[in-house]
Amino acid sequence: MWNQRDSRVIWVPKLDAIVNALEGDTPRYYTGAWRQAFPHVAFGPLAEQRFSHGHTGLPEDVIFNRVRSTSFVAALPAVERARVDEQLRALIAAEPELRGKDVVTVPYETAAFVAVKGG
């Protein structure tokens, strides 16, 4: 299973760009590199199902704290983490769906995968 922000919402790719610029060589779901392991002789076909949902709450919780909890962001020196916060503040100020809101929803899509052993 993997949760990723739903980039079909106009401001989400801008949020993703802030985060993704910091990833370095960290393996990430969205690159699709993990799919190179499939098909595999030990498993049946890879089945996939997707579910849309949102995380709703204070911008501090659903945007700032979520980005801060990303491993490669959390590992940054304090000065660089502060720059990320500034970028997030600028994004929120520029986006009508986020600006001035006490409660926001970050849209997500969950991708669930299964492959049966012995396929």
Structure explained in plain terms:
With 119 residues, the protein is an alpha+beta fold. It has four helices and three strands. Helix 1 (12-20) runs antiparallel to helix 4 (78-94). It has one domain (2-23, 37-114). It has a three-stranded antiparallel sheet with strand order 1-3-2. Helices cover 34% and strands 22% of the residues. It is globular and about 50 Å long.
Query: Which segments are poorly predicted (pLDDT under 50) over 5 or more consecutive residues?
Result: none
Which structural class should the secondary elements be placed in? alpha+beta
Helix tally equals: 4
Integer count of domains? 1
Beta strands, count: 3
The averaged pLDDT comes out at: 93
Strand and helix map with partners:
Elements: E1 2-5, H1 12-20, E2 47-57, H2 59-68, H3 71-74, H4 78-94, E3 104-114
Antiparallel strand pairs: 1-3, 2-3
Helix pairs in contact: 1-4
Question: Which structural traits does this protein have?
Answer:
three-stranded antiparallel β-sheet; 3 strands; 119 residues
Could you give a quick summary of the protein structure above?
With 119 residues, the chain is an alpha+beta fold. The chain is built from four helices and three strands; from the N terminus they run E-H-E-H-H-H-E.
